[in-house]
Fold these 3 entries.
Entry 1:
Amino acid sequence: MPTTATPKITLLIVDDIPANVSVLFDFLSASGFKVLVAQDGESALQKAHYAQPSLILLDVMMPGIDGFETCRRLKNDPKTQDIPVIFMTALADTENKVKGFELGAVDYVTKPIQQEEVLARVNTHLTIRKLQKELQTQNDELDAFAHTVAHDLKNPLNAVLGFAEMLGENAADHLDAESLEYLEGLQTASRKMVDIIESLLLLAGVSKQQVEKQPLDMLNIVQQAQQRLAFMTQKYEAAIILPDRWPVAIGYAPWVEEIWANYINNGMKYGGKPPRLELGATKVANKIRFWVHDNGEGLTKEQQAILFTPFTRLNQHRVKGHGLGLSIVQRIAEKLGGQVGVESEVGKGSTFYFTLPVG
């Protein structure tokens, strides 16, 4: 029975000196690769876009656009940004090496080219890229599995919660104190499970969903988050202080509302008694830092270090949680081009912040 030949891995060599190209072309072809050649940056961009090579060997000094600019354009094109680039250069000084890495190159080789060294570096980065793709595939499958399980659990859990609430409304007069306590526990546990499922679905959605970022009406977003937490605000007798004006940032309103809801929620749980939260914003370079300062106990350096780790819970003796909230906050902020963090000192409260690009 005939067998199908394994397709060759494609490499792209970009160099304007025919002698350099010829030597590498013959050696890499003899090593089992399919080798494409471009003699300038523009043609390299075209060939990389359409041929999708597995790796690019890119000369720095070329006529027209040089290797640095070619690399920058490769990394700005979604179709080529993940292709590993190895610079070939006679510029062995540190500044040019660093510049190449900053532009997204994975490695460099210095001229005159040593063929065996090139082959070793090529094979190393092809292996790394293969492992990255396998890991990404596994992560995608895990995300899809988590989303499916969470979605399938949502409806039956809502039914359990609904029946428990109906029993509480219609049968409370016929139950003794112990049974009422059990019923209340069933309702609390059901709500908690629904919250966890909603968090898992949101986390999966943030990972996969592509959204259109727009200028944000932050006052309205914060008010929406406060409305969601009105019951908690009343329960904890929390004071929430808002600024007179909000600067305009770029983002996606539903996700940013989730950040505020998580921060305000945690501020009320872990703040003082009663909690006092101050919200605000500060411009930092080309970003805006939005923050929530609480009057809680503050956090140690060790606690701060693990704060945004998924499924990590702090102060469990005070309020139990499933630890997804802050990891969702971090995922959202990074997806929107920002960052998250906390500044805290024991005995002086905590300031939780996230940044977004200036509008």
Note: Residues 214-357 form a domain with the Heat Shock Protein 90 fold (CATH 3.30.565.10).
Entry 2:
Amino acid sequence: MRIRIKKLRPEASLPAYAHGPDEDAGLDLKAAADVLLPPGETRLVPTALALEIPPGYEAQIRPRSGLALKHLITMPNAPATIDPGYRGELQVILLNLGRQPYQVHAGDRIAQMVIARYERIQWEEGDLGGSRRGDGGFGSSGR
């Protein structure tokens, strides 16, 4: 699949597979600026990239497990969806759950991006068919 991408600044890094496309589902996204993340706070981290995602697809932005494990850095809206009609800068919301400030440096890997197909739906109102689970939720499978 080919997706058009635009560098909004020359120093921007294209998303890349760390181990190659046959081994990784996600492409690493890199920060395009230095951003300080104080404990307990969120910041928007720019990538200086814009995408032209084809209709029927979305870009899912996900946290990096290494940042979460080592520094308690995550994304409060994970996974984030980038819709095919959006043409603005791709930015990542990062949250510092740790007790220490975390410094993001330009060029750091900050998130992963997965391109996924989605289906368009039409609602069909009416009675629902039965199932074994029924309306059981929120812990119902643990009984």
Note: Residues 6 and 142 are 48 Å apart (CA to CA).
Entry 3:
Amino acid sequence: MSLLPQSTYLGKLEIIEVYEYYDVPCLFACRNASEQIFLAVWASQTKEMGRWLYVPISLGRFRSVRSGNIDLRDAFLTAEDGFVYEVIIPCDDSLDRTIAISCEELNDEWLPEAGEFIDFDSEPLPALLLQKQEIK
């Protein structure tokens, strides 16, 4: 089983920052080849599959989340586009699945606790994002 979904419409993903780790990254930011940033959180695990939530996030909102101005729960519940992706990664050789879910339909148990923040404000943005800003 891979940590990142393979062959889904999220594209080819690479992790750019890890915020929580328990055997594997549980809360992290990643980006695809077209430079869409996602905040991802582990939602649940069974012996058959792992479930993750991926919220597409703009660079400005990403900065607000990583500096502790937006709590993690709200980052998912108030997604800019009104939806998040439920990513199901089977433990066998089955294909990974990605399902768009409206923020109103999110399972409360899959979300971070209210009032949880990350504070990476003193940390520089990942080099991948800095390169993008220099081009502009």
Note: The beta strands are 13-22, 24-32, 37-45, 49-57, 83-90, 97-102.
